[in-house]
Amino acid sequence: MSSNNKKWFSLNLGRKSSASSGSCGCGKTSGGCGSHSSDDYEMTDEAFVAAAVDASIGEERTKDGFEQVFDVKMDRRTAFKKLTASLLIGAGAVSTSCSVISGDESKEKAQIDWEEQFKGNYKLMTDEEKKATVDRLMRSYELRTGKNISMSSKNAEENILFGYAFNISKCQGYMDCVNACVEENNQDRDSQMQYIRIHEMKDGNGFSFDEADDNYYHEVPAEGHFYMGTQCFHCDNPPCVNVCPVQATWREDDGLVVVDYDWCVGCRYCMAACPYDGRRFNWKKPEVPEAEINHNQHYLGNRMRKKGVMEKCTFCVQRSRAGKNPACVEACPTGARIFGNLLDPNSTIRWVLENKKVFRLKEDLGTEPKFWYFMD
Amino acid sequence: MQYNKRIMNKWIYGFVFLMLFFSCKHGEGEYHGVVEKIEAESKNYHGVTVSSEQYHDGIDMIKISEGGHEFLIPERKGQIKMYACTECHNKPLSKMQTEGEQKAHWDIKLVHANENTMSCVTCHNPDNMDQLKSLTHKEIDFNKSYNVCNQCHTKQFEDWKGGAHGKKIGGWAPPRASMTCVNCHNPHKPHFESKWPARFNTQTVKERE
């Protein structure tokens, strides 16, 4: 067992690099423990993930609502299958790690999987723990794909509160922001997930979302219409955070509402609680072609998600905490999007709030969005 | 009876007091809204450590100060392909416009206001092609061409100075760098063309069927 002060139980998986080599989770140092006996239990990464998913949601991926509970054909075989699947995960990890035959790399992989499995909520981690998990995830990516990514765990800085302003008289509905967002944030290409929606509204009808179209395809701007964009508004009083049963989503000190994808259980309460449709769910494993993956990542931002977790706009935390503008702001050709630090009295966002007639969406709900609309 | 009433009154007052005491608390937040929070917390603002300067790499900038706002804009003259103009314009315009010879600037057609309002020499100085000019024939440097635009577009100029009009370069963090008028608008044809949206979500179409 490792002696450092961790919040979870650690296995010494017998890697050559570690101090006491050759010992196994079962406590024996020689190959006498049961889990050494066979290599049949060694799992590939895909099998590991498939088994994990099967064990956790199984058939539910195709069903919705009460069907998940009532419409389940469960014979003895499936029941056993589900039981053994979860057993296999543990057994797989242990056997890989204890096996004398398997290479150092697969042991390291198993060690990482183990530590990742039992790590705590990111919100509660110390800076060292945050760095450790980010290092593990980077190493894991390297072991799996042979490619390097950079992942940051940069914390919120003092004197920063991020805010956003959107000029509805400038937006022309070109949707360059949507494309930039998808590419920056590694969103699933297959289900064409997009955080931003641009609504085409009829002039004279105000904000009537039921009559608006957010998936138009004709030359824009269309006569007699105006355009407005919605995304996560990073509310200062976020209802999505209050309903999360496992506290996997929270508001950071710089105002960003973020999700720990490894702590999220996928209950989608937050999705229901959000009055702005700002949250998205991964119904399947997100897929991004290797060549298109953005390798500049943040733990709370655009790192690769898995199946069954929530995600949403983070104001591009990997960019904004480094001093850049979010990808949507940078991509907008009309200058309709303005981003900045609300606490800096000289920032342009503050000038907009103080000198333009600004309003927020559904202001009466008391969610206090940090996303203002204005007109020329 | 009188005694009972007094006790009852005490209870009621006590209850009302407790009700008021608890109902005046607004959740956990210190502020009533985010605007109040911004006002309060920005009072002792003392700068941030992040900077956007590293993202200005490779762009020549000049510092300008307009209406109390100090910020950077891209240098312009180095970006004009055939600057200095006087390298060709070395004699008066009337002498250069000879019939039959190959035309320069044939690709520029003025689509900006109407013919009564604008012609080439509304902005260009025929006496010194290296400079622009104001409506009152004062010289304006190409690097500060926004001073030509702001003669008519005063509202846009106010918004641009404050940061509500136009785009930033680099990022949100100081130092502020903004694009200038001609970085987005072609001064000879300043409007934005209509075009097809960059995205059409076929999955959404399927979901809504």
Automatic annotation (TrEMBL), chain A:
Coiled coil: none annotated. Keywords: 4Fe-4S, Iron, Iron-sulfur, Metal-binding. It comes from the Bacteria. Residues 255-284 form the 4Fe-4S ferredoxin-type domain. The keyword Phosphoprotein does not apply. GO terms for molecular function: 4 iron, 4 sulfur cluster binding; metal ion binding. This is 4Fe-4S dicluster domain-containing protein. It comes from Allotamlana fucoidanivorans. The lineage of its organism: Bacteria, Pseudomonadati, Bacteroidota, Flavobacteriia, Flavobacteriales.
